[in-house]
Design a protein that fits this description.
Blueprint lengths: L4 E6 L5 H12 L2 E4 H14 L9 H9 L2 E5 L6 E5 L2 E2 L7 H11 L2 H15 L4 E5 L2 H5 L5 E6 L2 H14 L6 H17 L12 E4 L5 H19 L1
Amino acid sequence: MKGLVIAIDGYSATGKSSTAKLVAEKLGYTCINSGAMYRAVTFFLLQNKIPIDQAHPEFQAALEAIRIDLRPNPVTGEMIVFLNGENVDAAIRGMDVNAKVSEVAAISAVRDRMVRIQRAIGQEGGVVMDGRDIGTVVFPSADVKIFLTARMDVRVNRRMLQLLKREEVPNQDDVRDNLIHRDHIDTTRADSPLRKAEDAVEIDTSDTTFEDQVAQILDLVRQKEISKA
């Protein structure tokens, strides 16, 4: 049987990426972090001091010059983000990118290009893709749709830990403000806003163990596999 398409959407710092990775690993599927693609675009713009303005000629030229590849780590199998041939998987996770990625992702020209790439990757099935519009725009016919949420205090703590692991020294208020700012942009943008698909299963990860939330999704996948058999 052809592999399923599993869409995991939700807010920042709700565990989308880590959950998607383990679900994909358990199923032997490919894991695609769509947010990493938007981070790579943002990183390129910031590094090259290009205005985040779709109407600016430098922006249009930059978008044409950007080539994003996702390649499996030969040891772990996890997908690594390459930007114009350079491994930027670690560089795109910092607070500078965090501060601007939602603004960049709200631009229609950027979304159009990223969605084309994402659909091309997922069209053969056997994919777990996480993001903010996977179940509503990229793959509205996904076999399994999940929407992750969590309380703000939990999300702030998770993001703080992520940044500390990368040897950054985050300020808690700055992290909270960044998440609130991103939520606002993500949910109010005109093009593909963050919202729960009508047929998505919502999972609040605030007080759920990581193992339990992965198990819930795997149960849903098994149910879908049985129904399609």
